[in-house]
């Protein structure tokens, strides 16, 4: 389930497409995707997260953002025949870590490798 806006999802999907063709501005086949782009904006959550640094809330928001990124990657892989590597970890291994609450970050390096 996506927690980000449709526009942001489309932009991230576009980043993955440019990676597929080796033309991403960050690193050819690698995109740098920041978690804040994937966060659903909820003023009360962001106030708590920003004002008192509530770690539980911050982890929940980060997990939701990572799962949104995963959903975008899944949709992308349904269209493009490729391997996706997130933070040097094959996609489904990374997804298992995220679902276990591990490896949550403020940005992710996503590599797209065309399969011929």
Describe this structure in words.
With 116 residues, this protein is an alpha+beta fold. The protein has helices spanning 6-20, 43-51, 55-79, 91-99, and strands at residues 30-34, 82-86, 89-90, 107-114. The chain has a 4-stranded antiparallel beta sheet. A hairpin with a 2-residue loop joins strand 2 (82-86) and strand 3 (89-90). Helix 1 packs across helix 3 (55-79) and helix 3 runs antiparallel to helix 4 (91-99).
**How would you sum up the global shape?**
globular
Q: Please tell me how large the radius of gyration is.
A: 14 Å
Considering DSSP H and I runs of 4 or more, what fraction of the residues is helical? Answer: 40-55%
Nearest-integer average pLDDT: 88
Q: Main sheet?
A: 4 strands, antiparallel
Strand order in the sheet with the most strands: 1-4-2-3
Identify low-pLDDT runs.
Answer: none
How would you summarize this macromolecular structure in one to three sentences?
It is built from 4 helices and 4 strands.
Which keywords apply here?
4 helices, about 120 residues
SSE layout:
Elements: H1 6-20, E1 30-34, H2 43-51, H3 55-79, E2 82-86, E3 89-90, H4 91-99, E4 107-114
Antiparallel strand pairs: 1-4, 2-3, 2-4
């Amino acid at each position: 389930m996506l927690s980000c806006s449709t526009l942001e999802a489309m932009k991230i999907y576009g980043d993955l497409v440019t990676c597929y063709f080796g033309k991403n501005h960050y690193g050819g086949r690698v995109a740098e995707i920041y978690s804040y782009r994937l966060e659903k904006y909820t003023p009360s959550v962001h106030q708590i997260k920003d004002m008192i640094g509530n770690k539980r809330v911050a982890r929940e928001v980060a997990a939701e953002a990572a799962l949104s990124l995963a959903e975008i990657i899944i949709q992308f892989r349904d269209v493009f025949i490729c391997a996706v590597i997130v933070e040097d970890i094959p996609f489904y291994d990374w997804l298992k870590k995220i679902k276990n609450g591990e490896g949550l970050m403020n940005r992710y390096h996503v590599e797209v490798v065309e399969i011929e």
